[in-house]
Design goal:
Layout: H1 22-26, H2 30-37, E1 59-62, E2 68-72, H3 81-84, E3 90-93, E4 100-103, E5 145-148, E6 159-165, E7 194-199, H4 213-233, E8 238-245, E9 257-263, H5 268-284, H6 288-299, E10 303-306, E11 310-314, E12 324-328, H7 343-361, E13 366-371, E14 386-391, H8 398-403, E15 405-408, H9 412-422
Parallel strand pairs: 4-15
Antiparallel strand pairs: 1-2, 3-4, 5-6, 6-7, 7-9, 8-9, 8-13, 10-11, 11-12, 12-14, 13-14
Helix pairs in contact: 2-9, 4-7, 7-9
Length: 427
């Protein structure tokens, strides 16, 4: 309960009880993180000077210059009126695939029946029946890649990571002639491809945040090893590398795992992105991702975390609230060509971000997707690999499915500020 006695804070940060209007409660104090950072939602300008108020349990209160002023618990900050009022909707365009997002913070105050922001649902789980656990290797096809257990460590299994062909594949490599991308009249073809499952740990975990840093580094190394091996086959155009966490995101088994699907064709979103990035390179002489990273690092509004070689940003035109992207700071088109000595660092920053997302959004279901350059085409200097993370906090509806236009009630700037506040310290 808040006391009416004034709290001694510097002149630029005063604390006192303030009544919350209902629309602010519905918006979960949304402008507050930005007010604390001195950023007006959806803009690049600073708010008018004056006392800023906010309620944010455990939040770091900041003055208008962005400098930390202290930890405030059960305290309330007051922002200038233009920050406390709901912000008008705004269009944002994705620079790579040109989809439009409508940022509409006011929609989070609308009445609705149901879950609203969707939490991750639990699986019915019996470890004794899990086909991915040690001792049941005969329930999967023979492994195409195995990392043996460290004999000097805690030997819970003979392996620490396995990659196996998918027992129930959507594509198969033995179906004859692959799809011919050059023949536009071809509307059907055998679904050739390779479908693999990466079993990330022998431990029966349902949450990738509980992977150790060594296990996360192994996971990225396995992605690299399998991408290199699939590329050498010379049959496939590209590979889809992704992870589904939670039933709402498409996971069918709780034991943490990823998937790799090699395809003989280039899906339209990848072809469109390649064309956009090539045009930008020809026009400016620069990689589009490198240019965006430089701008975001300079402004900082959408920056969530940064290490020596990687940065994590809130997506400018998100498809879901809190969508984020990780990319290497040094230009690199293909993930499989990434220096493997950086995987430990990659594991650290990714583990931080997963922990922040779970803490801020109450363990949402999500998909993470590795976007890396295709193996066939006229050069890849215009492309830059990245990992996208899509929290399944809302359900796509008619506008999204029918028109490819997304409505999101959380601005990227707000999402970045919130996730920054929830980042755990590096181990």
């Amino acid at each position: 309960m808040l006391s009416n006695r004034p709290v001694a804070y510097p002149w630029h940060l005063q604390v006192q009880p303030v009544w919350f209007p209902p629309w602010l409660l519905h918006q979960r104090a949304k402008p507050l993180a930005q007010a604390a950072d001195g950023i007006a939602p959806g803009t690049d300008r600073f708010p008018p000077l004056g006392p800023m108020w906010y309620s944010f349990p455990g939040a770091i209160a900041k003055n208008v210059s962005g400098a930390a002023a202290g930890i405030c618990r059960c305290s309330v900050f007051r922002a200038s009126d233009d920050l406390l009022m709901p912000q008008p909707p705004q269009f944002r365009r994705d620079p790579f695939r040109s989809h439009w997002t409508i940022l509409a913070p006011e929609r989070s105050a609308r009445p609705q029946v149901g879950l609203g922001m969707l939490p991750r649902q639990s699986f019915p789980d019996d470890p004794a029946l899990c086909p991915f656990c040690p001792g049941r290797e005969d329930q999967t096809p023979p492994a195409v890649l195995t990392y043996p257990a460290d004999p000097s460590g805690d030997r819970t299994a003979a392996w620490r990571l396995r990659v196996v062909p998918n027992k129930y594949p959507a594509v198969r490599p033995d179906l004859g002639t692959p799809y011919c991308q050059a023949d536009e009249s071809q509307a059907e073809a055998p679904a050739m491809g390779r479908s693999e499952v990466v079993i990330e740990t022998p431990r029966h975990l349902d949450d990738p945040k509980r992977l150790t840093l060594a296990e996360l580094a192994d996971l990225f190394r396995a992605y690299q090893d399998r991408l290199l091996a699939l590329a050498q086959e010379g049959t496939w155009t590209c590979a889809a590398v992704f992870k589904n966490v939670g039933a709402e995101a498409g996971a069918s088994l709780p034991h943490t795992h990823s998937q790799i699907i090699a395809l003989p064709l280039l899906p339209r979103p990848l072809a469109q992105e390649s064309a956009v990035c090539r045009t930008y390179l020809e026009r400016t002489g620069r990689c589009l991702t490198c240019a965006l990273l430089e701008r975001e690092l300079h402004k900082g509004h959408r920056l969530i975390a940064r290490s020596e070689h990687f940065a994590v940003l809130a997506a400018n035109a998100p498809r879901f609230p809190y969508e984020l992207w990780l990319a290497p700071l040094r230009h690199q088109a293909r993930f499989e060509h990434q220096d493997p000595t950086a995987f430990q660092e990659l594991a650290q920053i990714w583990h931080q971000v997963l922990a922040a997302l779970d803490d801020a959004c109450h363990q949402p279901a999500y998909n993470w997707i590795l976007q890396t350059a295709p193996w066939q085409g006229d050069g890849v200097d215009h492309l830059h690999w990245r990992v996208e993370l899509l929290p399944r906090l809302t359900r796509p509806a008619g506008l999204e499915w029918g028109f490819g236009c997304y409505i999101v009630a959380v601005t990227p700037e707000e999402a970045a500020a919130t996730l920054r506040q929830h980042l755990p310290p590096l181990p």
